[in-house]
TrEMBL record:
GO terms for cellular component: endoplasmic reticulum; nucleus. Pfam families: zf-C3HC4_3. This is Cell growth regulator with RING finger domain protein 1. Able to inhibit growth in several cell lines. CDD domains: mRING-HC-C3HC5_CGRF1. It comes from the Eukaryota.
Length: 330
């Protein structure tokens, strides 16, 4: 991803991939609220940054590749599901690309894909081999997926391909729990290397499918977090001074004080506030409520911020404050 270079100024921090349990989805009817950014001296920037209206949706499913470097078509792959309900993991080896995307369209227009059978029907069983695992609730037990040796498949041909090496479907095991979530299933498209195509193993796409028929491409947020093993070895002095310059421009260099707080989600600028803002398009999630207004460019990668949204809605925060203070307004 190439984020490494620009991260060095954060003395005791590193960017980590954190897959959030919920995903934020633009409200379908949502209007964007334009916001003009100002710095502390009230100097007006010309650029307008749109604040996105988002809706929080709880995702019962999670799926990660345990050790991507060791995965191959011939040796198999270890997957770690992480689900908050009992779920079924169905893996389709050599799944037809065209049929998969048509199946997602069917989910929108024809019938919802909430069970393995529904996907099976939607893709007309166009895959090479299928295996199924039961996933216990809140149990990150590794599942090993492997083509049987008698399938005699060593590769999925040269690119462009008509088959994905592996498509993993997560669905809720208990139909009663299906009504509890907006998200009814998750489709993960995984590339696994073979002798014809050695691109390293990775998740290509992850789609969450909603009960109302939409589906969304799940994106990971790059969240700043404390790193207790300080490492400055890779940073060049030039990079550090640029970063310092950036902080000085924002009038915040003084707050470059090292802190050792338990909170692993504190802001990369003031190093104190709770990280709450996702910057788009880079998806760095590194600023608190107080600092977000100082930045037109992401402090981690320098990309211009086109849009942003908060993880914890301000209104909700206010509501909670009111609740805890016992003042009810209606
Ligand atoms: Zn801050
Ligand atoms: Zn960024």
């Amino acid at each position: 991803m190439g984020h490494g270079r620009s991260l060095q100024w954060m003395t005791r921090r590193r960017a980590v991939l954190i897959k959030v349990r919920w995903c934020a989805i633009s409200k379908w009817f949502g209007l964007e609220v334009p916001v003009i950014l100002r710095n502390s001296e009230e100097i007006e920037f010309n650029t307008r940054v749109s604040k996105k209206e988002m809706k929080q949706v709880k995702n019962p499913f999670g799926l990660a590749i345990t050790n991507p470097a060791s995965a191959s078509v011939t040796n198999g792959i270890a997957l770690t599901p992480d689900c908050i309900e009992e779920s079924i993991l169905t893996c389709y080896w050599g799944c037809d690309v065209q049929e998969l995307y048509e199946a997602l369209q069917k989910h929108v227009y024809v019938s919802r894909i909430s069970t393995p059978q529904a996907l099976e029907d939607a893709i007309y069983s166009k895959y090479v081999y299928r295996e199924q695992h039961f996933v216990k609730k809140n149990n990150k037990e590794e599942k090993y997926c492997q083509l049987p040796s008698d399938a005699k498949i060593e590769d999925f041909g040269i690119v462009p391909r008509s088959q994905y090496p592996l498509v993993a479907l997560l669905t809720l095991a208990d139909e009663d729990s299906q009504g509890l979530y907006d998200i009814i299933s998750m489709v993960t498209v995984i590339h696994i290397p073979d002798k014809k195509y050695k691109l390293s193993c990775r998740i290509l796409y992850q789609y969450v499918l909603l009960a109302q028929g939409q589906f969304h491409d799940l994106k990971q947020l790059f969240m700043s977090a404390n790193n207790n093993t300080p490492s400055l070895s890779n940073s060049s002095p030039g990079e550090q001074s640029t970063d310092r310059h950036l902080l000085e421009k924002a009038g915040l260099a003084e707050s470059e004080v090292e802190q050792y707080e338990e909170n692993s989600k504190d802001c990369v600028v003031c190093q104190n506030g709770k990280v709450n803002w996702v910057l788009l398009p880079c998806r760095h999630t590194c600023l608190c409520d107080g600092c977000v207004k100082y930045f037109q460019q992401c402090p981690m990668c320098r990309q211009f911020v086109h849009e942003y949204f908060s993880l914890c809605n301000q209104k909700e925060q206010d509501k909670e404050t009111q609740k805890s203070e016992g003042t009810v307004t209606s």
